[in-house]
Design brief:
Largest sheet: 6 strands, antiparallel
CATH architecture: Roll
Strand content: 35-45%
CATH topology: Thiol Ester Dehydrase, Chain A
Structural class: mainly beta
CATH class: Alpha Beta
Number of strands: 6
Shape: globular
CATH superfamily: Hotdog Thioesterase
Strand order of the largest sheet: 1-2-4-5-6-3
Amino acid sequence: MFYDDGKCFACGRENPIGLRLLFKLDGEGRSIATFTPPEEFQGFAKILHGGIICTLLDEAMAWAMILNGHLGATASMKVKFRKPVPIGTEVTVTGEILNQGVRSWALASYISDERGYVLAEAEGVFAAVSEIPSPKPGSK
């Protein structure tokens, strides 16, 4: 049922219009990625669109689960927009596990600038998916 075909809008390497995020695990079990928003994703002039901000935050939480060996699906997410995320400036996106349950997990994520200031943050609940992602159909 679940497999990576490379087309995910947020992390798919084969999606030409996607964000192409590449998350790695840090020493504290958090997912970390950097992203420089292009002007095609702006809302107001030179400011990243809020929908893209939500996508970044959601994906960071999902990858916190994935990089810790689990698959989950977003059940709910609450976002706080603190400061505008500028276009053309690299930001860091971080996701972390707050609480791991049997059926649901609590997670958090944030976007920070080069000085470490938090520009946007989220808390989410993810449904734990018991099925391990299968390889692409036809692959070995």
